[in-house]
Amino acid sequence: xxxxxxxxxxxxxxxxxxxxxxxxxxxxxxxxxxxxxxxxxxxxxxxxxxxxxxxxxxxxxxxxxxxxxxxxxxxxxxxxxxxxxxxxxxxxxxxxxxxxxxxxxxxxxxxxxxxxxxxxxxxxxxxxxxxxxxxxxxxxxxxxxxxxxxxxxxxxxxxxxxxxxxxxxxxxxxxxxxxxxxxxxxxxxxxxxxxxxxxxxxxxxxxxxxxxxxxxxxxxxxxxxxxxxxxxx
Amino acid sequence: xxxxxxxxxxxxxxxxxxxxxxxxxxxxxxxxxxxxxxxxxxxxxxxxxxxxxxxxxxxxxxxxxxxxxxxxxxxxxxxxxxxxxxxxxxxxxxxxxxxxxxxxxxxxxxxxxxxxxxxxxxxxxxxxxxxxxxxxxxxxxxxxxxxxxxxxxxxxxxxxxxxxxxxxxxxxxxxxxxxxxxxxxxxxxxxxxxxxxxxxxxxxxxxxxxxxxxxxxxxxxxxxxxxxxxxxxxxxxxxxxxxxxxxxxxxxxxxxxxxxxxxxxx
Lengths: 233, 266
What we know:
Number of helices of chain A: 8
Largest sheet of chain A: 4 strands, mixed
Strand content of chain B: 15-25%
Keywords (chain A): 4Fe-4S, ATP-binding, Cytoplasm, Iron, Iron-sulfur, Metal-binding, Nucleotide-binding
Shape of chain A: globular
Pfam families (chain A): ParA (PF10609)
CATH superfamily of chain B: P-loop containing nucleotide triphosphate hydrolases
GO molecular function (chain A): 4 iron, 4 sulfur cluster binding; ATP binding; ATP-dependent FeS chaperone activity; metal ion binding
Oligomer: heterodimer
Largest interface: A-B, 59 and 61 residues
CATH topology of chain B: Rossmann fold
Number of strands of chain A: 11
Largest sheet of chain B: 9 strands, mixed
Organism (chain A): Cathartes aura (Turkey vulture)
Number of domains of chain A: 2
Number of domains of chain B: 1
Protein name (chain A): Cytosolic Fe-S cluster assembly factor NUBP1
CATH architecture of the largest domain in chain A: 3-Layer(aba) Sandwich
């Protein structure tokens, strides 16, 4: 049973990617109802509260924090195995607030996404520092857009060159796990735009096996973590 | 008392609703193109959490000095034709995270707008983080008295990116900021081995959006590993790779800005 919470208030991409554009949130006695993609996958995003795709959410920090609090307090998720929280880029209000508001619930950890080049790693090192500062465990790093294989000649190109060693070197230096690398596949963008599951549409893609391996490692981390928690209790 | 922006002829903001589309890249390349046309350019980097501009000019280790009128911007070379200001120069260590809530970010942005001694510039390019929040509201409000020329919006071709940039267009409208045009970045990749062009991030979304919103479409910039490499190494792409696939697109964007200037003055 999975819940996906999109706290990118200014740029909510999740509804489109899940094929849920245009859906609205319903209220009931027990709170806000998530929008369900499948019976066991519920989604919440500010995107569902906007009436037009042109609507901009031009809010300063405190108002964004208020909505995040509401999402956590008022959405009736039911019993869930995994709550996944998608965040905007940065180390600011949304990030501080989500960590603060979820502290009582105990966050398993963070998965940090980067692309191979230094201009991305530069920011991701800051994100890793943020996690250390707020005592958020790091499950690991994913190197996205890691190489492209030409569909015609099958040669590989590094479109975002890992001039400083990519995520691999950074993870070694900072002692965090590299969960995996996902190559560029034009089908990913297309599936997201259509709101279809890339994993179902392109089961043979190398990107699909990368995603699946990464997901498995995350699940293993969470299972281990849960086990350790039970031992403590 | 003369304001620090009194000598700046034109102010341009580079915006996007979406992260990772290449705002800082476009800001950098636009500055380099304008310099090659003989202009004096400054870049104000108001991305406080992820300041990318210093490294793109290979000056990430520089410090910022004070003078009577405020902060001296960092010059990228002897000619002093490009100057920069970024929180990147103020960090003790490059990996230090700036974990600030809105009010603290707003205070620094106000300082950045008022207290940098830019001197005389033809163009001040303001590079922003993704979104429509504190940084954007504060920057536009602080710049309002200086009548910015307008904003360039950067997107990648696919719908997920365009979706966020539509919201950025609404932001511009609500804030009274003119939209100079839309740039579609990462628009196609030409394989260096066989020259086959693949639309890795789909195609056409930027141009469609421009049409739908009634704003100029400034052009498509393709994915070019030579460009990525230049940026990684803080080199002058415009000078070194005039034959690259991205060069004509970037030069054309700069030319349209300059043409827009001469139209406005006549």
